[in-house]
Amino acid sequence: MKTIYRKPYGKGELRIGWSSWNENEKSVKWAYPDKRGCTSIRSPEVPLNVLVELLTFALHKDLLSDEQITRLRETI
């Protein structure tokens, strides 16, 4: 991933950038440190369109809290 934006999150950071599999697609990533303090190779990277589907799926399965739903509505 070629990172465009970063935001601290927990012990790592959230990243948005050009995907590692296609430089014409954007993706998001939760980059967290491994035991050595380097970004873990297991940090998940997801295409933006899949992220939307994941959120929609979680919403329809009632897995999001009221607070999370409110945050999404206020953001959109």
Task: Describe this entry's structure for a reader.
There is one protein chain. With 76 residues, the chain is an alpha+beta fold. It has one domain. 30% of the residues lie in helices and 32% in strands. It contains two helices and four strands; from the N terminus they run ββββαα. A four-stranded antiparallel β-sheet has the order 1-2-3-4. A hairpin with a 7-residue loop joins strand 2 and strand 3. The protein is globular and about 35 Å long. The chain starts with a strand and ends with a helix.
- Quaternary structure classification: single chain
Overall pLDDT metric: 93
Question: Pairing-aware structural class of the strands and helices?
Answer: alpha+beta
Strand content: 25-35%
The biggest sheet, with number of strands, parallel, antiparallel or mixed sense and barrel status, is: 4 strands, antiparallel
Q: Which H/E pattern describes the elements?
A: EEEEHH
Number of domains: 1
Which segments are poorly predicted (pLDDT under 50) over 5 or more consecutive residues? Answer: none
Q: What separation lies between the terminal Cα atoms?
A: 26 Å
Q: How many beta-strand elements? A: 4
Helix content: 25-40%
The rough form would be described as globular
Rg for CA atoms: 14 Å
Give the strand order of the largest sheet, numbering strands 1, 2, ... along the chain.
1-2-3-4
- Helix segment tally: 2
